């Protein structure tokens, strides 16, 4: 908790596979997953989500025609009776977004398709936070970002650390890893080579 753990290795090293196991998308062939020292077994990504694991993939899982708030709470909309409580949804979204990007808040009513990539990524992170995630996996999060956007992302990651989240940061860009990570694990051919501070 409160740490950025980078996972590095060349293509085919097993980085994405390991993260898919952690999220519940794949079943492990061996080994254990421990969360808070307790063994867990996930049969489906929903199990991983319930345990507080969120993955932010390179290709975002957002609906461009929907608003920011609708994307953050898709399928989990707050309700007042039978109706969606849009005010509560917008309010909660605004809180999450301002925590992540206080200097550059995103309007909950903005259509996601109108947002640049970096701001769509912020919406994905806010969606993960709305699920009370404790472990956030970022798979090559800077692949489509400009240099100034990378620094904004790093500021958001530091805020996640301050909140006590564990962040797994998968990247090929070693200069970024040395800037943002507290610990690094190197993988090769599906095996751990070393973990270092």
Report on the structure:
- The chain is built from seven helices and ten strands.
- With 197 residues, it is an alpha/beta fold.
- The chain has a six-stranded mixed β-sheet, sandwiched between helices. Strands 2-3 form a two-stranded antiparallel ribbon. The chain has a two-stranded antiparallel ribbon with strand order 5-6.
- Strand 2 (33-35) and strand 3 form a beta hairpin.
- The longest helix has 16 residues, at 147-162.
- The model has no long low-confidence stretch (mean pLDDT 92).
How far is it from the N-terminal to the C-terminal residue, by CA? 15 Å
The structure class reads alpha/beta
Read across the widest sheet, the strand sequence of neighbours is 4-7-8-1-9-10
The helix tally amounts to 7
Task: Describe the main β-sheet briefly.
Answer: 6 strands, mixed
Number of strands: 10
What global shape is seen? globular
Mean pLDDT: 92
How would you spell out the order of helices and strands? EHEEHEHEEHHEHEHEE
Low-confidence stretches: none
How much helix is in the residues? 25-40%
The radius of gyration computed from the alpha-carbon positions, rounded to a whole number of angstroms, is 17 Å
Share of β-strand residues: 15-25%
What key phrases describe this protein's structure?
197 residues; alpha/beta; six-stranded mixed β-sheet; two-stranded antiparallel sheet; 7 helices; 10 strands; globular
